[in-house]
Amino acid sequence: MSNQHYPHMLEPLDLGFTTLKNRVIMGSMHTGLEDRFWNIGKLAAYFAERAKGGTGLVITGGYNPNRRGWFYPTAGSFNRYGDIPNHLRVTSAVHKEGGKIALQILHAGRYSYHPLSHSASAKKAPINPFKPKAMTEGEIKSTIKAFAKTAKLAKMAKYDGVEIMGSEGYLINQFMAPHVNQRKDKWGGSIENRMRLPVEIVKETRKQVGKDFIIIFRLSMMELVEGGMTASEIVKSAKALEKAGVTIMNTGIGWHEARVPTIVTSVPRAAFRDATARVKKELSIPVCASNRINTPEVAEEIIASGDADLVSMARPLLADPHFVNKAAEGRGDEINVCIACNQACIDHTFELKRASCMVNPQACHETELVYLPALKKKKVAVIGAGPAGLSASTVAAERGHDVTLYDMASEIGGQFNYAKQVPGKEEFYEMIRYYGRRVETTGITLKLNTKVEEQQLKASGYDEVIVATGINPRTPPIPGIEHKKVLSYLDVLTGAEVGKKVAVIGAGGIGFDVAEFLVHPGAKADGTPRPQSLAEWREEWGININTENRGHLVEKKTHAAEREVFLLQRKKSPLGAGLNKTTGWVHRAVLKMKDVDMIGGVSYDKIDDDGLHISVNGESKVLDVDNIVICAGQESRKDLYNENSKSPKFHLIGGAEFAGELDAKRAIKQGAELAAAL
Ligand code: NAP
Ligand code: SF4
Question: Per the confidence metrics, is the pTM higher than 0.90?
Answer without folding.
Answer: yes
